[in-house]
Amino acid sequence: MMARRTFLATGAAAAAAAAGQETAAADTGVDEGEGEGEGAKVDEGGGRQDTDFLDFLTTAADDRAKSVLDGYAAYLTELRDRGQARPSARALRTLTSVFVHGGSAYHHDGALLGPLGELADTLEEEQFDDGLWDQGAAHSPPDTAFSIVDLNLAYSLLDEDGHASTRPLRATVERILRAAGPALATGGLHTANHRWLVCSALSRIHRRWPDPAYPRRIDAWLAEGIDQLPGGEYSERSPTYAAVVSNPALLTIARFHDRPDLYANVRDNLEASLYVIEPNGEVEMVHSRRQDQTTLRHLPEFWLQYRELAIRDGDGRFAAVAALIEERGSSQTFGETPPGDRLAEVLDRPELSWELPRVTGLPTDFEHHDTACSLVRVRRGDRTASIFGGTDFPDVHAISSGLSTNPTFFKTRKGAAILDSLRLAPRFFSLGHFRAENLERTADGWRLTAEVRAAWHHPLPRRHRRPDGLYALTDDGRFWSAMDFPHRPKEYRTLRTEVLVREAKEKEAKEAKGGSWTLDFQLTGAEVPFALELCFRRGGTLTGDGLEPVTDSPDTYHLVSGEATYAVGDDRITFGPGNGKGGKQPPVVDAGERYSWMNGSLTPDGVRVLITGRSPVTYRLTLG
Fold first, then answer.
1. SS3 for 282?
2. Which of 140, 145, 258 has the alpha carbon at shortest distance from 193?
3. Among the listed residues 165, 164, 166, the one whose alpha carbon sits nearest the alpha carbon of residue 174
4. pLDDT at site 477
5. How far apart (Å, rounded) are the C-alpha atoms in residues 591 and 597?
6. For residues 111 and 152, what is the distance between their CA atoms, to the nearest angstrom?
7. Where are the alpha helices (DSSP H) in 162-246?
């Protein structure tokens, strides 16, 4: 394996000759200098360098550096005015990567020293005496750790490069890191992934400036056990936090805290992620317990993790994912992290620049059930579907950050025609959407079920009456009132919902010209109106004789009769039939009192089609 110092200098002479940088360096007074390094030796005789990959990353980093130089003053304003340290720390990391990299147009460019120094000085000035920054939460250890992770990496690259001109910069960053260490070793945190983030930050500080308190704290967090579910997702079930926080942190702890067993956790998560990849590079998020459960995220956030494990394990499937991401590298769907920001990670771990092992096929024809998340994924080439029955709502009856509450229970796509969401909203005591309590396999499909009930309350028994009329403020399951609900006799109303989801057999699929799904709905018990809400990704054309626009609801239609089609180019999804007008009133999607009393909204973005009816009912929806 190539030693890191050698790797940093690769291509420097050629780049200098081509760009005339030797003269420029002399003009700016930049001299070559010393470097102690981090002492992390790597084996000689590793893989061959993937020059296409490194060239792509270098070009992306140079472009990103230009953008940072043009806009870093805004990062400093955010830092000074709002305590937002992360953009400045990331900017410092990015500029460091192109400064030390021999193949970059900015290699040892003295014009970077001023911005780098200003970023570091301001980070030090805004760091509290306890070593922390705010980042939106007063003196926050985990939010500070995000910045320390970047600064650890930047310092390591600067020290390995050993350029005399960066001695003052290195001294400043060292003071920041040393000040943060004790705070991270004693401070608390909020979420599951924060534990591994803090441990990763401490592990690199300890490797350079040992302190017995640091490994003690790391081991205390690790002793809780990695929060990985049997299917490979972490407890937050969030692809975003797996890719951006947990996986990178565990890989760092594996390297710097001598825990190679943690590679298995990352490997299992990447295995699980193979089945939530969409053909266009998006990642299914409906099962997440975090903010991403209703947003779009893209596969490239996993890029270097797939690359690292592909090279480490010789895994052709992981190599295929990494290669797919690189093929999409110039598109706008590359992910939230610009590819140029990742050069620092590759310079820090030169083995990431090795050629990938031979690519083998990704799974493109499967039915995968992650029982821990109650998520079924089906893929047939460019057709995919998601069946989800794993929200936390049936267990906790709350809508809150950290819970899975997205009521979408089915999605499907055919190429560019995408049904982003299918939801069912009965108007039953304002309890909101159908959220399945169970997802189980049937002989030819999947069954989702739920039962909800609400009470009419009767007068209190004599022994619980109070002469002052002041009763306990209590919750009846949908709202609070000073009514002492637990002691009242009740008369319940119940609504039972069953959805049978079935993929068409081969013959049926041919008749449907490309495959189809049937969803059989049965609502029993209470007599209530309901609305099925289909929400399609914008960019297509909706047609159908039975469609009627819904008043005061832009891009929303009522399918009253027959079928309708949503098409994007040659890709289309045909669905229906309509189920009548369902009464004189316009159709309503009732998100429930937990949203309405705060004027909240659960309306998804897109082209919406409503199919309405009234329970008890049996109805079949076909998507072909």
1. strand
2. 145
3. 166
4. 83
5. 11
6. 23
7. 167-186, 192-208, 213-222, 239-241
In the chain, the percentage of residues whose pLDDT exceeds 90 is 76
Local structure of residue 228 (DSSP, 8 states): B
Amino acid occupying residue 302: F
Listed residue (494, 476, 492) closest to 484, CA to CA: 476
Q: What is the mean pLDDT of the chain?
A: 90
Q: How many CB atoms lie within 10 A of CB 208?
A: 18
Half-sphere exposure of 201 (CA within 13 A, CB side): 29
577: preceding bond cis by omega (within 30 degrees) = yes
Q: Identify which of 24, 158, 4 has the alpha carbon closest to the alpha carbon of residue 92.
A: 158
Q: Is 54 helix (H, G, I), strand (E, B) or coil?
A: helix
Amino acid at site 356? L
pTM of the model: 0.90
User: Which residues 6+ apart lie within 8 Å of 389 measured at CB?
Assistant: 374, 409, 436, 437, 438, 439, 448
Residue the block writes with tokens 């709002």: 82
**Average pLDDT estimate for 170-194:** 97
d(CA 302, CA 288): 16
The DSSP-derived string for 409-458 is -EEEEETTEEEEEEEEEE-STT--S---SEEEE-SSSEEEEEEEEEEEE-
Query: Is the bond into 616 cis (omega within 30 degrees of 0)?
Result: yes
In this structure, what DSSP letter does residue 527 have?
Answer: -
The string of pLDDT tens digits covering residues 284-322 is 999 999 988 877 777 888 999 999 999 999 999 999 999
Burial code (b: 16+ CB inside 10 Å, e: under 16) for 476-485 equals bebeeeebbb
Place of tokens 């990496």: 153
CB 212 within 8 A of CB 159: no
Rounded to 5°, the CA angle 13-15-18 comes to 110
pLDDT of residue 296: 73
- 515 close to 380: Cβ distance less than 8 angstroms: yes
Average pLDDT (197-213) is 98
DSSP state of 377: E
Q: What secondary structure, in 3-state letters, does 545-608 show?
A: CCEEECCCCCCEEEECCCCEEEEECCEEEEEECCCCCCCCCCCCCCCCHHHHCCCCCCCCCCEE
Indicate left, alpha or beta for 504 from its phi (over 0: left) and psi (-120 to 50: alpha).
Answer: beta
CB atoms within 10 A of CB 119: 28
User: Cα dist. 105→51, 101, 613 in Å?
Assistant: 16, 9, 64
**Phi, psi dihedrals of residue 522, rounded to the nearest 5°:** -135, 115
